[in-house]
Amino acid sequence: MFDKLFEAQQKAEEIKKRLNNISVIGEAEGGAIKVTATANKEIQSITIDPSFHSEAAIEELEELLTVAVNKALQQADNVSQTEMQAATKDMLGGLGGMFGG
């Protein structure tokens, strides 16, 4: 039983490492603002088109930046959930033997 728990812990670590290598992008204003993050919800970069930046009011820029960050984090959530569901399905299949399944 402890082997299965250890295996589950290792699998979780593998998923976390894999999520660090998956990038997601949130955009606002037709791509004028782009936020890139890992699937572990770590912001990697923020880019703002210089022509948009020169014309935008600071309040508009702040609002759109918030939108882009939230979109990136939502995509990260979606990827993370998909990875975890796949791993859980694999682990539960492996745990079936512990319960006579």
Care to describe what's here?
It is a single chain. With 101 residues, this protein is an alpha+beta fold. It has one domain (2-96): Ybab, Chain: A (2-Layer Sandwich). It is 62% helix and 18% strand. It has 3 helices and 3 strands. The protein has helices at 2-20, 50-55, 58-95, and strands at 23-28, 33-38, 43-48. The protein has a 3-stranded antiparallel beta sheet. A hairpin with a 4-residue loop joins β1 (23-28) and β2. The longest helix is centred in the C-terminal third of the chain and has 38 residues, at 58-95. The radius of gyration is 19 Å and the shape is rod-shaped. The two termini are 14 Å apart. The mean pLDDT is 87.
Give a brief description.
The protein has 3 helices and 3 strands. By secondary structure, it is an alpha+beta fold.
What is the topology?
Elements: H1 2-20, E1 23-28, E2 33-38, E3 43-48, H2 50-55, H3 58-95
Antiparallel strand pairs: 1-2, 2-3
